[in-house]
Every structure is written in structure tokens, then in C-alpha cells.
User: What shape does this take?
Amino acid sequence: MFETLTLFENSIVAVLLLCVAVSIIGSLMLINRYGYIAASIAHGSYGGIGLALYFGFSILLGTTLFAIFLALLLAIITYKNPQRKDTLIGVIWAVGMSIGIVFVDLTPGYNANLMSFLFGDILMVPKEDLVFMGVVDTLLIIFVVFFYNRLLAIAYDRDFAYLRGINVKFFHFLTLFLIALTVVMSIRSVGLILIIALFSIPPFIAERFTNSLKSMILLSGILCLIFCFTGLYLSYILNISATAAIILVSAVAFSISFIKAKR
Amino acid sequence: MKKQIAIEVKNLFFKYDKEYILEDINLKIYENEYIAIIGPNGGGKTTFLKLLLGLLTPTKGSIKVYDKPPSRYKTSIGYLPQRVNFNLDMPISVKDIVLQGRLNSKKLFYEKEDYKKCDQILEKLDLKDLKERKISQLSGGQRQKILLARALVSEPKILILDEPTASIDIKGQKEIYKILKELELTKIVVSHDIKILFEGIDRVAYINRKLFMHENPNFGLKPAEGHFCEMELFDYLRKNSDV
Ligand SMILES: Nc1ncnc2c1ncn2[C@@H]1O[C@H](COP(=O)(O)OP(=O)(O)OP(=O)(O)O)[C@@H](O)[C@H]1O
Ligand SMILES: [Mg+2]
Assistant: This one.
């Protein structure tokens, strides 16, 4: 369905799909305080890229499987206390990246552009990725619409949600699994290094101005769109990297909201 | 008529790490009894409640709630935790918190009945003006009352409250005691407020690693007589407990 799009139109679609994921996963990450876990999955999944290059299978497949593997590992480690900044989370982060670096080094004649995995390029998102992003977004929307009440209760008070008969463990695993898919779908456009910034800033600002998770998700989505299109525009007129421009625009908005809130 | 046993605890031992926090606890709580639990900080009161709820598992011994393990009975218990590990900025309204008491593993969305019960309990606790407010904008006492509403809205068979009157003013405490006194169900309330002993409880348990049950909840003292102070009563209980 995306065959007839130009590169520019591609990037518009990518931004829209990205912002859906940012609004949902970013908000869930923030209210559950999963930021550190998500960062660990994002950076660690570089291991998947290294393995895919070395063994010669699709990078999308390699990163997906590896990121899911890390998410499950982290879900087991963090289930009892998701807010704990366990050293193990940091170790997984570092080991994942090291595996990536080692296998990229070992890959003979490897000359693809590594920078694009680290920093991404929203102007160069291939059409297959758009399909993948669409699938992940659909899953995220279903997840948040049907399980809205459960997700909210768990984020607010896990013990209480458990007492009401909610399977807290299942949702912990499922949320981390979806974070992994989201990380993978965003790598090409945002890059490993900048994913966490993009997923954190819009929900962080939205949280202060809303009084329900629903409105937080909607406002994060809108903020994400504003930041992305402003960033794209700046990158076009100043001829700078689009992703970096988006992050910088977000950071400026973040600082303004922070200063306002402190007053 | 023989009273039905709601909760039965036998030879309960519990430790988080090396040291036992609770030792050899034996206890029967009957249906519709109103039990107060007092004891020093770190005595193990919260731990004990979490064991009754199935949030923790005994190291040794057994707990039965209506002859079932706590985890099988938990949805019929209303619980007010001592503190919610909560993110101050989390965007959630009073209504959304109270509705959590109506969550249920069988349905995904709240129904008319759930909203109705939520309104009723907010009305009863005089919270209905706060219904749409964001929780982070409320005072500590108001938050505590909202958690009480959340515990009651499920119409539980057993109520387990961990310091419901903490950070609530005297007037609010009186209101809460009055509401609790009128409720017809099994009630277990942890409190640091000795006034609870004069609010219609049936028995008082003192927990400090061990549990001592006192059948006479206030030892015949009356608050109005003015010849006791909280410390004295507390000391009295402690001396008569650490046998
Ligand atoms: N998660 C935990 N891990 C290890 N030790 C714990 C944990 N929770 C509580 N403890 C310890 O268990 C003991 C009993 O704690 P508990 O919270 O049950 O006391 P409490 O009687 O409720 O005290 P308070 O009146 O202060 O609420 C304390 O010594 C505490 O340090
Ligand atoms: Mg306690």
C-alpha cells in the first residue's frame, strides 16, 4: 500500500506511525517508570544487529528476536520490583551492545552504514519498515484500548491490582514485549541512541497538563507530531540531520515546560 | 450459635531475609468481628496484613480465609495500603482511583453499576466534589479517604485497613471511625491512633514480632476520664503483651 510514495511522503507516514507509538509506549513507560528498562532494551538490541550481520539474516528479524529476548530477560529480573535500578539491567544494556560491536567487527567486508542504526534517519525509512510500524501500532492501540483500566490500575498500585484478580505478571511481560517491538520499529527512523529521548519527552510534558492517562496519551501524540514536523522543517531549511533536529526541538520544549513548572 | 471463623492463622512464621519478623502467630478472627491492631514501628503489622492478603507467603505455618488460601479469597477483601508507591505527577483522577476497586478479571470495561457504586461511596465519604480532580492536587488526608473509598467500593466481605487515619485531622478521624463502626463486615484495622480502642472494636491485637490478643479492648478505661494518656496505655499493653 506504500508503493507509490516518494521518499518525502514516506517520512511523513513514518512520523505519523512513530508518534502513535511514542504516545502509547512513552506514556506507559513514564507512568510505570520503565525508562531504564526500555533504555536497556534499546541499547542492548544492538546485539541483534551484530548477530544478523554476522550470520547473514535480515537485520529487522535479528533485532526483533534479540530485543524480544532481552525484554523477556528483563521482565524476569524486574518483575518483583520494576522501579529498582538493578545493576543487572545495566549489565544487559552493556553486554547487548558489546555483542553487537564484536559481531559487527567480525563480519567480513562489512560496509553498511552503522551510523544509521545508531542515529537513525527519518528521511530514509524503507517501505517494509512502514508496514512493520503499522503492525506494531495496531497492536499497541488494541493493547491500550482493551486493557486501559488494567494498565492504569497496575501503574498506580500493583498490589491492589493483583488483589482485584488482575494478572500483574502477564501485563508486565506483555508491556516489556511491546516496548521491545516499539524499539525495533523505531530504530531505522530515530536510531538506538535517540529513541529514549523521543519516547520520554512528549509524555513527560503531557503528564503535567492532563488528569487522565487517556488525555496524556493524546497530548503526547500531538506534541510528538509538533516536535517531529518542526524538526523536519528545521532540518530542511538548515540542512542538518532530521532526527537530531527533532530531539533538539523536543529538548527545548522540555526545558520550557520544566522551567514553567518550577515557577 | 457458634460464630463462623473468617480467618484462621496457625503457627505462622515469616522472614524477609535472615531474621524472623513474625513468630509463631496463632489467631482466629470471626465473621463480623472488628479487630484493631497496634504495635511499635517495625513491629510487623503491615507485614502481617500482607500475609493475610496473600501478597506475601508465610515462611512457615498456614493462613486460611474461609478455609481457602488468601490468594483464592483476595477479591472479596477490601484493602487500604499504608502507602501507595505512587508517582506524584501521575495523571489519574479521584474517580479513576476509586473505580479500581471495581476491577475484576472477568470484564475489561467498567459498567453502569460500577460508576453508580463509585458515586455512592464518594457521596458517603463526602468526596464527591473531588471526583474529577487530579490526585496530585489533593492533600494527604484527602488521598487517604480516597483509598478508603477504593477499599469499600467493591463491597468486600472483609476489610483490611493499614492506618486509615494517618494524616487525617481529628474531625476526619471521627468520621472514619463512625463509618467503620456502622459497617457490618469483618474489619481489621492497623492504627497508631489509640482512640480507635474506644470506637466499638471487639478485640485488640498487639504485634511486635509476636502477636498478643487482648479480649478487653480498652481495659475498662474511658477516654473521657482523663486519667490515662496514650503512652501509659501503650506501655500497659506492651507490658501485658511481652510475656
Ligand atoms: N520488603 C521488605 N524487605 C525486607 N524487610 C522488610 C520489608 N518490609 C518490611 N521489612 C522489615 O520488616 C519489619 C516489619 O515491617 P512492617 O512494615 O511490617 O512494620 P509495621 O509494624 O507496619 O511498622 P509501621 O508502624 O512503621 O508501619 C521491619 O523491621 C522492616 O524493616
Ligand atoms: Mg506498617
About this structure: The mean pLDDT of chain A is 90. The longest helix of chain A spans residues 7-32.
